[in-house]
Amino acid sequence: MWLPTIPGVAVIAALFIASLCVTFIPVRGMRFVAISLLCFCWALFNARQSLVSFEKWTVKPVTVEALVERTDNKQNHELQIVSVGGKTIFPSVGFRVRETYLSNHVCAGQRWRMKVSLRPVHGQLNEGGFDSQRYAIAMHQPLSARVISAQQMTQRCNLRASWLSAVENATKSLPYQGVIMALAFGERSGVSDEQKSLLRQSGTAHLMAISGMHISLAAMVGWLIARLVQLTFPAHRIHFRMPLIASVIAAGVYTWLAGGNPPAVRALIGVVIWLLLKLQGRSWSGWEVWLCCIAGILVYDPLTVLSDSFWLSVLAVAALIFWYQWMPLPRSVATARWFYRYPLALLHLQIGIMLLLMPLQIFIFHGISLSALFANLFAVPLISFAVVPLLLAGLVLTPIPWIGEQLWWLVDRLLALLFLALKLLPDGWLNIDKRFQALSVSGWVIVVIHRLSLWRNSFISVAALIFSLAVSTMRVEEKEDSWQVVMLDVGHGLAIAIIKQGKVFLYDTGNAWPGGDAAQQVIIPWLRWHHLSLEQVVISHEHLDHRGGLISLQREWPAVNIRSPLHWAGHHSCFQGDEWQWQKLQFSVLWPPKGSTITGNNGSCVMMVSDGHFRILLTGDVEAEAELAMLKRRWGILHADIIQVPHHGSRTSSGAPLLRAVAGAAALASTSRYNAWHLPSGKVVKRYQSQGYTWYDTAQSGQLTIDINSDKWQINSFRAQISPRWYHQWFGVSRDNG
Q1: Would you tell me how many other CB atoms lie within 10 Å of the CB of residue 393?
Q2: How buried is 411 (Cβ within 10 angstroms: 0-12 exposed, 13-18 middle, 19+ buried)?
């Protein structure tokens, strides 16, 4: 989780030998040290193995044989490499193919021989943003591929794919087919954006992905079926092991139907461990079973430690054990009639889950659903005791025409009822920033204080603790002469945030694409997580990669002040000679000329931002022609400490005269890896370095943060300083922009 790099094979081998030697030390407790070292070596070895594919196969195209794991039968496919250049690979390595039509019909289970250009996964890295690199490594899909040629070796689909196709045909006329396929096979691509949004807002999204609850329900159904079968047996043939084994078999079948996705596999491992502990005939406490399950899962797959869903599951089970031990149902409720007891027991459960899972929910999702308590009161029983059992029956009885159709129709109607009820709830999603992370543990604290009656015995200590948690939510007052400049990692595009006293001035808004933009994906979540208020935006020019997120930002902050050289309605002027102050920072526009009608890159609004000591030059996409025109009679005022590299490091920009006039110490470029234009140009990078600049770009460094305090400033990059983790590094060849 925390290592900046994975040690080499020699270090891992030395630790392994050390663990063996420790076992012979005749001191109590040394065997636990030895086991810990051994497990650490196993984890390091697995991490090291996950990097092998980056080092061996990403330099040049390779010929692989691969099995299709998942596909949308169109352009998007997930495969497992079983051999490279004729050599078998174990364990297999996953890769994804996007927006590529293969020559024949594709389905899971087929074997293909492909010549592919493999690329390591490379994600945008921003504080508080989604970590796609860590996710890909945890999911064992660290590669993406561009297919050069492909030949189908086997045409036959596997049993799961055939089963999936049969259910897909049986449910094709049903409105909630996408949700049915998600619950039956873990295929969530058919769930609409509207349905996903509704599930997220109501805090019920966990019910629509095959996870621990669904695998446990399948195990319970297997146990019940075995018990019913045992009713036909003579007494001497009935044994307690049969239902337990049947439950594991049922859980295994459902895990297989889910395509062996990691959450389902983890749940199956938990069920198997529970069975083994049960068969020992010893009474195991909840905490002991919990620890054994964690150990078993991490021994099976040490990289699971990188998975957010793993930690969410771990904390959820811990929260349940803790809640029922420390805050059990009152005796009056436990002995009440069933029509009082069950609703109150469910409410008691949901309150506990909501309070105790809050810290991890805020950390991972940056918010909580206020309507989740009420939504889960009816959603959990409906899914658990009606939808999933009927769905499991439908999976078995689909081949029987009338019965299968009626079962799937009934499942669809129950899902329609669920979504109708969810729509009646108000939008309960509440975005929460990082200030409340410490306060979010108050649920655990309150339970401990209540159960131990600390509010009676140690009132002052309790008051001090609550006060310190409350104080943690207050913004720390910053020095008047301190501020920040943050170049966000938005891929191909530009977004630079100038921050002072909790307010933000934004220079450009990143790119846009069908169905989304950089503001929705990066900028808005980043602003909310850091509790920042957007006050002003400058759009340097009209190209989409610089203005793509503007509409989304205006939707969130309707009163935001916008400047640009575009002459658009509602936009203030951004032309040469314009000057203004914001938060005691001086902004001076250096280009384009007043009243100019220049469009495109050379019409970019170029500005200098200064606090009287530190100066940064923001250049947009200005090219060499405009650079030279801007330099005429204005040579002296272009000096700056840092320059934002024009046009993402294109060779059409960053002329030597501009670099000499600026005479800065550092150059910051907003670039994306694998971009089609091969930016930044190697010649441009060398030109900056030969002029004495230190080069930074977001493709290499992720988010770049400049902390300024009077005449002192420092640049921190996400990969090197902010979060230097082995799974955040630049994998593959040292520089790869194509």
Answers
A1: 17
A2: buried
130 pLDDT more than 70: yes
**DSSP letter for each residue of 86-148:** TEEEEEEEEEEE-S---SS---TT-EEEEEEEEEE------TTS--HHHHHHHTT--EEEEEE
Where in the chain are the domains? Answer: 9-52, 58-157, 211-306, 439-471, 482-728
What is the spatial distance between Cα 277 and Cα 285, in angstroms, rounded to a whole number? 11
* Type of residue at 105: H
Q: How far apart are CA 273 and CA 304, in angstroms?
A: 17
Alpha carbon distance 720, 574 (integer Å): 35
Same fold, 58-157 and 482-728: no
Phi, psi of 86 (to 5 degrees): 85, -5
State the burial class of residue 540 (Cβ atoms within 10 Å of its Cβ: 0-12, 13-18, 19+).
buried
How many angstroms separate the most distant Cα atoms in the chain? 103
Q: Cis omega (within 30 of 0) on the bond before 401?
A: no
- Strand pairing class (585-591; 579-582): antiparallel
SS3 call for 733: coil
Q: What is the pLDDT of residues 236-294, one digit of tens each?
A: 788 888 998 999 999 999 999 888 888 889 999 999 999 999 888 888 999 999 999 99
Residue 267 CB coordination number (10 Å): 26
Residue 23: strand, helix, or coil: coil
Residue type, 508: D
Question: For tokens 């929910």, what's the residue?
Answer: 361
DSSP state of 474: S
pTM of the prediction? 0.90
- CATH number belonging to domain 58-157: 2.40.50
Residue pair 296/310 in contact by the 8 Å Cβ criterion: no
Nearest-CA neighbor of 92 among 136, 158, 157, 142? 142
Q: For residues 205 and 259, what is the distance between their CA atoms, to the nearest angstrom?
A: 19
Cα 142 from Cα 303, distance rounded (Å): 12
| Residue 234: cis peptide before it, omega within 30 degrees of 0 | no
Q: Which CATH number does 482-728 carry?
A: 3.60.15.10
Q: In terms of DSSP bridges, do strands 704-709 and 482-487 run parallel, antiparallel, or are they unpaired?
A: antiparallel
Query: What's the CA gap between 431 and 438, in Å, rounded?
Result: 16
> Whole-angstrom Cα distance, residue 566 to residue 580?
19
Q: What is the pLDDT of residues 135-178, one digit of tens each?
A: 999 988 889 999 999 999 998 888 988 898 899 999 999 999 99
Q: Is 431 exposed, middle or buried (0-12, 13-18, 19+ CB in 10 A)?
A: middle
Which secondary structure element, helix H or strand E, spans residue 324, and what is its range? helix 308-326
Count Cβ atoms below 10 Å from residue 584 Cβ, excluding itself: 12
Contact 705, 489 (CB under 8 A): no
Contact 644, 619 (CB under 8 A): yes
Q: Which residues contact 88 (CB under 8 A, 6 or more apart)?
A: 82
Distance of CA 665 to the CA centre of its chain: 35
Of 216, 214, 221, nearest to 183 by C-alpha is 214
CB-based contacts of 316, cutoff 8 Å, min separation 6: 212, 353, 357
Contacts (Cβ under 8 Å, ≥6 apart) of 597: none
Q: Point out which residues pair with 83 in neighbouring strands.
A: 65, 88
Burial of 43 (0-12, 13-18, 19+ CB in 10 A): buried
For the beta sheet containing 579-582, the strands, ordered from the edge strand earlier in sequence to the opposite edge, are 579-582, 585-591, 606-610, 615-618, 642-644, 666-669, 694-697
